[in-house]
Amino acid sequence: MAEAEAAEAGSPPGQAEDQDQDAVGGQKIINQTFLSLSQITALSEQNVEGVQKKLEEFLNFKQLKTSLKEAILLDYYTAGFWWAKEKNFSLVQLSGFMDLLNFLLENLRDKHMTLEDNIKELGKAMAGIGETDSERSGDMDVFSIEQAKAIIDYLNSSLFKPYKLYEHLFHSPREELVISNKYVIELAPPAVTPFPPLLEEGMPLESCESLIVLPIFAEMEPKGSDQEGHLEEPCPEAESLEAGAVAAFTVEDQKSAVDGIPNEIIGNLEAEINEKLQIQEEAYTLRTEKIKSPK
Q: How far apart are CA 75 and CA 70, in angstroms?
């Protein structure tokens, strides 16, 4: 294709290939800065847990407990930064490495690149490493050849080998299953003296008597004594009513009321009394006879 275009333009094929290589070598593949230098500095001062918390804040992850994507992305960036920090990368190198991690992941997630195409993009980004010619230096010219080899090995194990899993994560729709159970719980009514409290609110008997029961009865006692005092005090209105009722009946009226009691009722009472007295006499007689008679 390059030879055909060169022939149409009237230039030799070899010269066109050199121009393409120069264009690739001097072109910036990674045009977006993932994290600022101040954020990289703040991350470099943290341990692993601190790096994870800082990245969660910088990337504005709010649904880590429910979102699988956010959890995997946070783990991806945290592991990559910590690996680079253990390699003693400088702040500029840490920033470039994080840009590379984000660049390759965006190719997979947003551009739907295949594994082969993404590896080619990595090759373009790392072109010019170790060369002194500034025109042919690429995005990763801050790294040495040994560091570039280590980066390729890390990307191979962390991104390229599980590439299918990342594709499934970002491109395969999944149904969200919401499982819930509803329970109806009947709660016992609150305890009111003298009813006992709930078992979960129970306490030793000594504590209950000393702290709860006795103060309640102590508060109730004065009220009872006051009521008794009120009952003992005579009411003048009641006395006047009783005096009027008694004055309305004469002695003759009382006698006639007593004489009006049926004789049958009095006779029945006398018969019952006599019967009970006779039974008691017989019992006493038997006891005395047993005592007197020798065994």
A: 9
